[in-house]
Amino acid sequence: MMSKQINVLTTTDLHGFIANQGDQPALALQGLKQKFSHSLLMDSGDFFVGNPLTTFFTTEMAVSPLVAYANKVGFDVMVPGNHDFDHGIAYLKEQVKHLDADYVCCNVFSEEGELIFPPFAIKEVAGIKLGVIGLLTSRMSMISDFEVTRGVVVKEALLELKKQVAALREQVDLVLVGYHGGLERDLATHSEINYATGEDEAYKLISQTEGIDGFSCGHQHRVNHGQLKQTLVVQCGYRGSYFGHLTFDFNEQTEVVKRQEEVLATNSLLPAQKGDFYKEEDYQKWLKESLDLTHLTEFLQEKYGRQHMGIFISLQGKSRQQVINSFTIPYGVRIYHLSLAEYQTLLKQDWTFKVEDYPAGAQDFVIMTNSYEVPEYRLTDQFVDNIFDEYSYYLKQHD
């Protein structure tokens, strides 16, 4: 009896890392599909946004070079991540118009209740029908600013997923899901690894939905793979450093007789590929230009608005590159609650921007800063937001 093998290849959280210089594993994906026959390639989101280069693309070009990259790699199906909405739904729709891939998501709606993207795509590979459902984390309201998701309604992932799996199951030979969200439980031990906030719920989605053959998740920038019941699960890290590989063997009756998953390092794909999707000299010139800083504290006050919070920001200079370097990854800004004596020590330091907003006679002080020269035992909150990218978008919106 003859068998047929289908290869499902997955990526996630590339975050636009296709620079011409430095270590860029995502560039090696240009040769991925050529190495696997009978293959489908899907991406699970956070593709268009995530580093200064993508901010350059967004502010300087109507169509991001990441579109040309995606088309050259040969993605078949793509799913939005939370950061793909960071420049607004109109910008994302414009990029999608130029993609060769199907762009799908079953739980993102307009305020009028209409799906913004198709909920799924059906692709045929070597005579086998594959249905691919797109899904976004339910908790966009917790992790994205209202301004960038205006006009977008993200519904609960589980209910919408169940609807689409039921609609697809009898139409296709394989049901696949691309989910921009992470795992809340360990795939092997089933023990909790995250607080149950609803932001990451891949385990729940798979466990409570019958009929899913393959599930690609992301968002957490972690690497995982395993199997839950009959569902193969992969999570492929960050920046394209890894890709998922799901294999399904079919008999002549198009029944799956064997299934297996793995996550592979992208550096196993040789030879290395070059970029050249944009002009490097234009990017370097853009980095050296001065950034308008007149609205920086206003932006921070609006984004992290709290009563009577001071802002203390130290910058290396005024150029875009210097501002980028001033907000160190992963935590661009942090909030501290200081005593009077600790606050008085803070005041003696040199700051590029200093905003004091406290009632008369205050004895304790909530401050936001990008400096680490503050007592760590007073830290109350810290944020992974890309301050440079979001501030650049803020300027664009307030021109």
UniProtKB/TrEMBL annotation:
Domain Capsule synthesis protein CapA: 11-238
Any Pfam family: Metallophos
InterPro entries in the cross-refs: 5_nucleotidase/apyrase (IPR006179), Calcineurin-like_PHP (IPR004843), Capsule_synth_CapA (IPR019079), Metallo-depent_PP-like (IPR029052)
Highest taxon, organism lineage: Bacteria
UniProt keyword annotations, A-Z: Hydrolase, Nucleotide-binding
PANTHER family assigned to the protein according to its UniProt record, in alphabetical order: 5'-NUCLEOTIDASE, 5'-NUCLEOTIDASE-RELATED
Family: Belongs to the 5'-nucleotidase family.
Name of the protein described by the UniProt record: Capsule synthesis protein CapA domain-containing protein
Source organism (scientific name): Lactobacillus xylocopicola
Organism placement in taxonomy: Bacteria, Bacillati, Bacillota, Bacilli, Lactobacillales
